[in-house]
Design goal:
The protein is of the alpha/beta class and about 425 residues long. Helix content is about 40%, strand content about 25%. The two termini are about 55 Å apart.
Length: about 425
């Protein structure tokens, strides 16, 4: 069956998803797996733990799609209603699979069984013709069931580790054999900093109309991504389809592309400084340690990152960073002069090759006519006493976290450009 001739949908079941108590990472992961199998899916739905609503959405999906993948609602508690609701959707009864109950008894202690035997046993009931998806990590099996011709349902628990194990052991090969035509999707994402999404889109208008590979822009705070996706018989062939488009983009945006796929600005900086055998330190005011956190979130950061001084008050800027009271009084803490001194002094005090300092007004209070909310000064001090000073005025409609995050992105991207320039 051609993947273009049928529909695939994902249904996530659980009131906790609707309430926002947990993030739906299962749907994202399943989407990625479907892409690897060369299958496009066109809709994702979420429904709470309500039998009537689950029945209604399943019946709707059965009329428009051929493959439904559900997660959640397979456990032993009263609000785990998925299997029951699926059976009722097609007026089918549930029958106990005794061997599943025997397996559950082997997995759990006797004391647990005494407390929860009736509720645990409900996990052993399935429609008569359903194929069981065994759960190596938990007690709740899933199923593969074709209740009506041309419509197949696969069910999985909501626990990510259980769902992934069941997918890899059973579902992947089943879907590949029955639904995949042997093609796969492969994506390569280029990441940009220092340029807006609209500016990128304007320059690649013709690429956005390609059919294979496809090019799709999307933006996060402080960066733009271009996802290039090819459909091919294997990953190597897909990479060859992507290659000329990728090379064209790298030539057009050489200054702005900082990495690919899992790269981040912090990881790129760490990699480059490690290669140079150089170290870096920070002096932070308005970002309150966010710059330091961005670096230390990356494994291997200890090879380059020495530490930082977070000096929010003028008193600490004076005592820890040796910024004179005279300079603080004359220029103010949020100024190019003070920020530059912070970078120079922290570099000297913590004995590093590079230093970055940040001082600004992240808001929403504290701004003035001369120094509005969103004003940020950044200084980068490098080898041979080279200093780069940056003044940014972010839009005051940005909230505090956004201004802090954008400030960190500007710091790291400017350092990246400096390092790029010095390596040529």
């Amino acid at each position: 069956m051609s993947p273009n001739s049928f529909g695939v949908e994902i249904l996530s079941i659980g009131t906790e998803l609707l309430l926002g108590n947990i993030v739906n990472t299962n749907a994202q992961w399943i989407s990625q797996q479907l892409s690897q199998l060369g299958l496009n899916h066109f809709r994702q739905s979420t429904v709470g733990d309500n039998c009537d609503r689950i029945i209604k959405v399943i019946q709707e999906i059965s009329q428009r799609s051929n493959l439904l993948i559900t997660t959640g609602g397979l456990g032993p508690t009263p609000d785990d209603l998925t299997t029951e609701a699926i059976a009722k959707s097609f007026n089918e009864s549930l029958f106990e699979r005794q061997h599943l109950w025997d397996e559950i008894k082997q997995k759990l202690s006797n004391s647990k069984l005494q407390d929860d035997s009736s509720s645990l046993r409900k996990q052993c009931f399935f429609p008569k013709n359903a194929q069981i998806i065994y759960n190596p990590r938990g007690t709740a099996p899933g199923m593969i069931w074709e209740p009506i011709k041309g419509f197949t349902i696969l069910t999985f628990p909501g626990v990510p580790s259980e769902m992934k194990s069941m997918w890899e052991e059973t579902a992947f090969n089943f879907i590949k054999t029955k639904f995949s035509d042997g093609y796969c999707f492969f994506s390569n994402t280029l990441k940009f900093a220092g340029i807006g999404e609209s500016s990128v889109a304007e320059k690649i208008n013709e690429l956005l109309n390609l059919k294979n590979p496809t090019v799709a822009p999307y933006a996060n705070l402080g960066e733009v991504k271009l996802r290039i996706t090819a459909r091919a018989k294997n990953e190597e062939e897909a990479k060859n389809i992507i290659k000329p488009v990728k090379e064209k983009l790298k030539k057009e945006f050489s200054k702005f592309i900082f990495g690919e796929d899992d790269d981040t600005l912090p990881s790129v900086i760490i990699k480059e400084l490690t290669k140079r055998n150089q170290t870096i330190v920070f002096a932070e005011s308005c970002t309150g340690g966010l710059l330091s956190s961005s670096i230390t979130s990356i494994s291997g950061s200890s090879q380059v990152f020495q530490g930082s001084i977070i000096s929010y008050s003028n008193e600490l800027k004076n005592s820890l960073l040796n910024i004179s009271e005279e300079k603080l009084t004359k220029y103010g803490a949020v100024s190019e002069e003070v920020c530059e001194a912070m970078a120079i002094n922290v570099k000297k005090k913590l004995k590093a090759d590079w230093a970055i300092s940040i001082s600004g007004i992240a808001g929403p209070k504290g701004g003035s006519k001369d120094k509005p909310v969103g004003l940020v000064y950044i200084s980068i001090s490098g080898p041979n006493n080279h200093i780069t000073n940056i003044k940014k005025i972010f839009n005051s409609t940005r909230n505090r976290i956004e201004i802090q995050t954008l400030s960190v992105n500007v710091c790291l991207n400017r350092l990246r450009l400096i390092l790029l320039s010095s390596s040529k």
